[in-house]
Amino acid sequence: MLRIAGRRLSVLSWRQTRATSLLLLRNSIHDVVDSKEQDHHGPLKVNLGEDPLSLLKSDEEHGHEEKGGVTKMSKPYDVTIIGGGMVGLALACALSSKPLTKHLNVAIVDPNSALGMRNYYNKNEIPGSRVSTVTPATISFFKDIGAWEHVQQQRHAFFDQMQVWDYTGLGYTRYSAKDVGKEYLGCVVENKVLCNSLLQSLQESDSKKTIIPTKLTSMTFPPKSPFASNARTMDKSRLTDSDESEELIHLKRLAKLELSDGQKIYSKLVVGADGAKSRVREMAGIKTTGWNYAQSGVICTVEHSMENHCAWQRFLPSGPIALLPIGDRFSNIVWTMSSDESNRHKMMSEDDFVKAVNYALDHGYGPHPQSSSLDRFIENLPWVNGPGTLSTRESFQVPPRVINVVSERMAFPLSLMHAHDYASGQVVLVGDAAHAVHPLAGQGVNLGFGDASTLAKVIAEGLSVGADLSDLALLKKYENERKAANIPMMAMLDGFQKAYSVDFGPINLLRAAAFRGAQYIAPLKKSIISYAMGEQKLPLFS
Description:
Layout: E1 2-4, H1 12-17, H2 19-37, H3 59-62, E2 64-67, E3 70-73, E4 77-82, H4 86-97, E5 105-109, E6 131-134, H5 136-144, H6 148-152, E7 157-159, E8 161-166, E9 172-176, E10 186-190, H7 191-204, E11 208-212, E12 216-220, H8 226-238, H9 243-251, E13 255-259, E14 264-272, H10 279-283, E15 288-304, E16 310-316, E17 319-327, E18 330-338, H11 339-347, H12 350-361, H13 373-379, E19 402-405, E20 410-419, E21 423-424, E22 427-429, E23 435-436, H14 444-464, H15 472-499, H16 505-520, H17 522-532
Helix pairs in contact: 4-7, 4-14, 14-15, 16-17
């Protein structure tokens, strides 16, 4: 069952019943208690080395609740996920779907009120601008966590072909799912459909999870010093007769999260799934490396006169433009350009924007690539072509023309960012909080789903051998696995961005050679397809 959490009620009666115990303890804790008694009407701040008994002074601090005249301690969360977007929800679903982790008490902190709603999106509606291209590896993950069946009941579009070329007309590459014996290369799904499907899967599970519709404002962590450890031991020895006090002492080993509505919750593990500008990453003091591309991505939904089943991408002097099928006669545009150009294209009339898109996807900036005698010679080399690579003999095709813009045009700045650590203390990062990439290959969200899948798997493995959720050695195992997958992809995408941002004769020839190699060398083409589909760890011949 999914629970939507609200503010806890005051427990004045609980404090009254504990008055005698507090008086007996007053001599040993008077410094802390007296300071807190001066003002206990608002949220109280607890510093890293603070005595946990001071938590008794506030219902928001100690997490007690009263039901039917019986007072008890509300259980701290095992995992608190900050961010209820696609990756955060996917992690919650993954934890809910595994026998070893479904018992965990999981909270999702996100102010988005839509997380408490459940509905299917009408397939007949015009698709939104925000979409993701999910790989077969991601689809397999969604099936494992019970979310793909909900995607299938809503709008989505598989594609089995892809064509990539640049504006010089010197080369192109066509890819086909049949080249690797598959039915499709990927599937384009609206982000809201992915989120809704994950949420429905989470609602249907019988695991413990709570959505807290608010924002994180601060985090504090248990002290690491020997003095703090000794103090914790002393406090525990004094209070062996009190079950509640035992639990309060336990709180000092947990991360404390203060929320914007005044709540204070405790958790063994905090997961930052709150995007590229992650507050969790900032509060945990995790440093990053990265740079801005001085580019923006313009996105929108467009309409054709016929249905589109192919993904198209053309590299232009200003950046790549992609045309992705989203179902029926609709496609999604992702067009990279300078920030000034993105503002200009957002302000264009619809007719002018349609003309600009067709110009960019067709004959604009340069001619269509043409097969040459060299291409025909390469095609006939016995060591080049391999069985099943039918696309090596496919000629260049012109993308379908756009006839209308049917959604709002939006733009977002592009950058690369990578966190130095994915795990630090009791904090672990997933998705864009750990890494942000250029969208030219549509791999960003797939890397995030890979994070969610791996973290859930590593947590389950740790629990199977009795490890603690916040065991840094356990969390570093997740970090090492994901860095090995994410860094090569990030480096490749950054390299593509830099290589195609230069308009220089020799560089253009090298790009043309790369296109021709990918088009005609069957083993290379198969390796590229398998890597892009998420079914191969390294991009070349692994």
